[in-house]
Write a structure and sequence with these properties.
Blueprint (H helix, E strand, L loop, with lengths): L12 H6 L9 H6 L1 H16 L13 H12 L3 H11 L17 E4 L16 E4 L1 H7 L4 E2 L3 E2 L13 E10 L4 E11 L4 H13 L2 H22 L4 H8 L10 H10 L2 H10 L17
Antiparallel strand pairs: 1-2, 3-4, 5-6
Helix pairs in contact: 8-11, 9-10
Amino acid sequence: MDYLNSLIDNTNGWLDAALHKRSIKKNKQVIQDIKSDLQAEYLKYESIINLYTDSVPTVTFIGDDQKKTLIDYYEAPPKKLAELFKNRRNNNLKKCPYCANPLHPNTLDHFIPKNDYPHFSIFQNNLVPQCLKCASIKGEKYYDASFGCIFIHPFYSDILSRIKINFDIVFLTAINNINISNIIIKLENGHTMENERVKKYLNALDFKNRLQEYCVKQFGILRKESKKNSFDLDVFINGKLTISAQNNRDWETAFYTALQANIQAITFLKNLMPKASCVSKISSTEFSL
């Protein structure tokens, strides 16, 4: 999980892109008429996020027409705004900032949901890169009256970047597969309130079940590769864990840390590998482009 404060943009560039003079959107005037109101709400955004125990204040300048138009500008943006959305989706992140799944987060989450709060539907600091699974789980959820904001904004809080994931791998000899147990979330420099917030956050994203599914899948991939190829498993695992400061901050390195500690699982994988004499030589040709 990452702290993405570098993506905070407090300029009016995205709103100006929505209202670009070359835009041929027929409903542009609707947004033009509320531009100053939107800018005023954008200035309040950071304080709304930081006061996470409070609900999002209502606004009076959004009616049905304004809501429909603002959501339309996200779903069918004019060219200049579409380019900005595309650039944010085509980020260089290697894991989801919400859950730490090691894949490219190529969808955008409205951290404050656009259907309930359409005035933030095209605000750049409300559009957070996210993986598809987190998107399907989070959806329009945001606020719990008994707790506050359920989720943690990776632009405005470093809490998620301070998380380390630890667990044990249990090798199931009856089925030659694994399970995970004793999941411990370590929050560096954390305190009780932050711990409770992170726990609720991870539960809301179905973190435990998704992590289990990921680890079983990764072990299945390793099992298949071990049957086909003879390779140095210890070197392979160490290669996954070369940057020690980053280990256990995502699912992949947490998995390989736990796997490395389970001698039974390691031995099983090594015993699957074909002997050197059984590995067929592969011929190849080469050509230039």
